[in-house]
Design a protein that fits this description.
- The chain has about 190 residues and is mainly alpha-helical.
- The protein is built from 5 helices and 2 strands, in the order H-H-H-E-E-H-H.
- It has one domain.
- Helix 1 packs antiparallel against helix 2, helix 2 packs antiparallel against helix 3 and helix 3 packs antiparallel against helix 4.
- About 15% of the residues are buried.
């Protein structure tokens, strides 16, 4: 598999970033939902948020890297049999995924810095508290962070269902391209 994308396939970098970010987002969401149920006496009360924040900021960096990679590489063309509405819907879902991810990360930062403290990233360095002291900053950002996170999970489910629909019902190469697999032969729908 080549590193860069071509007009027909995604390259190793795009595929790797997609799946690393996908696993990171789902894992961080599960961790975030789990830690909301922790009480002060839990052994994870302080460490779970530390990991959630550190992974979240790392994901922000990877998402920016993925967008830069996406803009600097050719994008595989939509498969020829995909209806125009489906291509537009896929573009809209991708745009919403990125938008929600950035708002969720920004709201998480606002929660963490509401009291003027920076955000430690794996104990290696600290992101300074640039925005702090807004009215009800932690509460408002927390509300957005939670509900947009739940919305993001729904959108991810829609995205995954679309990929599975292409693979199992349409029998095309949409999912195979993002798994880094070889395309089906030209006798099939979309070679």
């Amino acid at each position: 598999m080549q590193v860069r994308n071509t007009r027909k396939t995604y390259g190793l970098m795009a595929v790797s970033l997609h799946w690393i970010i996908a696993l990171g987002v789902i894992g961080t969401a599960i961790l975030g939902l789990w830690m909301t149920g922790l009480d002060y006496y839990s052994a994870w009360y302080r460490s779970a948020p530390f990991w959630h924040k550190s992974i979240g900021i790392t994901l922000a960096t990877l998402i920016i890297l993925r967008l830069l990679w996406r803009w600097s590489n050719p994008r595989p063309a939509p498969l020829p049999h995909h209806p125009r509405w489906e291509v537009r819907l896929a573009s809209l879902v991708h745009a919403l995924l990125y938008l929600l991810l950035f708002i969720i990360i920004a709201s998480g930062y606002l929660i963490s810095t509401a009291k003027g403290q920076g955000v430690s990233i794996f104990g290696w360095f600290e992101l300074p508290a640039i925005v702090t002291g807004l009215p009800a900053q932690a509460d408002r950002a927390g509300f957005a962070h939670y509900w947009l996170g739940v919305s993001l999970l729904g959108l991810i489910a829609l995205h995954a269902l679309g990929a599975l629909k292409h693979h199992f019902l349409d029998h095309d190469n949409t999912l195979r391209r993002m798994l880094g697999m070889r395309s089906r032969t030209s006798e099939e729908k979309d070679a």
